[in-house]
Amino acid sequence: MAENEGNISATAFSSSDREAMEREISVSQEPEHVILREDLAKFFDLSHCAEFIQDGNYSKVALQFPDNLLCYSAAVVRQLNGLVPDCLLFILADTSYGSCCVDEVAADHVGSQAVIHFGHSCLSGIRRMPVLYTFGHEPVDVDVCTSSFRTAFPDAESRVLMICDTLYESTLDSLSSRLHADYPNLVVARIPARAADSSAEGEQQQRTWYGSCLLRRPEQQDASADDASADVTAAADESADRSVTTSDNRHTRCGREFVLADGTAISEYSVFYIGLADMALNNHMMTFSASPFNLYNPRQKSSVAELQTARANRSLKRRYVMMLKAKEAKTVGLLAGTLGVADYLAVMQRLKQIMRQAGKKVYTFSLGKLNVAKLANFMEVDAFVLVACPESTLISSEEFYKPVVTPYEMEIACNRSREWTGDYVTDFRMLLPGAAYYKGADEAAEQDEEPEFSLISGNLLSRPQDQEQAVAGSQALAKRADGQVATLDAGAAFLASRSWGGLDPQLGQTAVADEVVEGRRGIAMGYTHEPGFGDSCCRQEATASSGGCCRAANGSSCCE
Fold it and tell me: Can you give the pTM of this predicted structure?
């Protein structure tokens, strides 16, 4: 039995050279919904995409595709080139951050004048160039969907808020027209049509929709890093993105706009969501956490009634625990999860300010797409806060060594004037001055030095010293052993206290060999100096310099 186990282990941890070279790896690139080549123009509304390019007289346009639609990118470019032959088209793929956000940085690198974004989008604000969103015409069985709606809400007087994923926005009118007659309290959330730029001239600047394609124009520039509130308060009139509720009970949530009946609140409505179980669903569930949630999946033609409410409650409990861990963190890493969403610099500057006022050390990181290995390199950091779009900011910290929280959770952890109420905010722009959820620091609460009881460690937590004052007071002079004068730095002192400080270069102290030695030849799975090299024929490119196969490189007769 022991011998068999040994053979199994040897087979699991080693394999022959031939097997390693001939192994076939299957990579599935099939999209969830297969689109025929002759249907691409209709599915993505390419005629209106071409009209957008012609109206703007653009000579360079970037086409951004998510991973599941990348297989159609070449065919789309060929068909668009036939409609606008004078325009140079670029394909953007493998974005640095979420594919739901417009990669304006990559588009700017190629000198693009506009971007056409294909597929699902989080509809975050843009800053650099016009963007045309073509969501696609994902099929929805209207009969099955309406039947699922009636099953979930047998009472015709039910207050229901219907929300569609951007992929199914084109079918929203037909769904609502069938249900409005029987459900008078049905409210439909739609993508708002942005107001035209008052400084723009011409018919093209006044246009918002090209068929089923949504046009968004750049907003005001980001606030500067030195003044987080500059330009942010001035942008408060952008009600389509910044405000939540107006006097006529008009609400804007998750990029959608809807009007509720007078005297009613969102918590009185149940949500009927048409879409997939993905990050967009998580964003809506956290935003409408006080409402019963019903999901209809058009691809599976199935519905889940009110089971999503329990899922949202569990998510809120997990987020609350991570917020408590962030409150105890002394060193925080501020992660830039986007370089294109509007006002990301302003919210990062505000987070730095409130975290330093709470006595935390803050370090800023730009790491692209996050993974466990990247964040594991910074073990001195106690918690991370991710600044990203509303859909990408909600990530599970189960696999990470340290908690990764949202800007809203870090605000609760550091701002004593803000409390956890269960009303969750995923859009960080709502936390800036002039927005609906902005809450300034309460000076009376900040001066309260009464310690708090920690539910995580069970200890009493006292408020540390303001890091901005601590840094200003730590610039003391110290005399070195060689007589030089230097300033004391808390960060450098912390790194010097570590048991391992990195590799010692020892410049000028290492002897240099007199002879130059030839290095290894071959590939990692088998070098020429290793025993047994050339026992089996492999005909690899690594030994092409020998003029034959691997045996000839080793002085043996060629296997040919």
Answer: 0.72
